[in-house]
Amino acid sequence: xxxxxxxxxxxxxxxxxxxxxxxxxxxxxxxxxxxxxxxxxxxxxxxxxxxxxxxxxxxxxxxxxxxxxxxxxxxxxxxxxxxxxxxxxxxxxxxxxxxxxxxxxxxxxxxxxxxxxxxxxxxxxxxxxxxxxxxxxxxxxxxxxxxxxxxxxxxxxxxxxxxxxxxxxxxxxxxxx
Length: 177
Description:
Gamma-B Crystallin, domain 1; four-stranded antiparallel sheet; 2 helices
């Protein structure tokens, strides 16, 4: 089965559509607006600004007939990124300060409250060694989120996430595909 997501200009899968099977940095050349989508298979991050910027939301297989009211978004999906499946362990080092400063904790599983588990008041940078994950601004995987793939994240504030505090983290599991 091919991995793909279909975007529709109007709610309830109406209007013009655009099928995407990989990353798309700017959907405006395909659709004027996007108010619903259907994930045929795979997992995707969608963004309300071009070039994978702005608010982001995780989507797995399913139908999203009116995602804007569901998420409280005022804008439309403007870019999307396919999340590759990862089988194996998850490893991330989380740091209290930017540029890998301050206290460091290694996460290898989901953490519903970084503050409670590690007594860490803030998470300003991280290094994802293995796997893909989602960071959330509130405990128990709620609030705005950010997708983390393997790599170094030296300063979340430079990623357009200023003023946000990351309070929980969840692995993207292969069973979600």
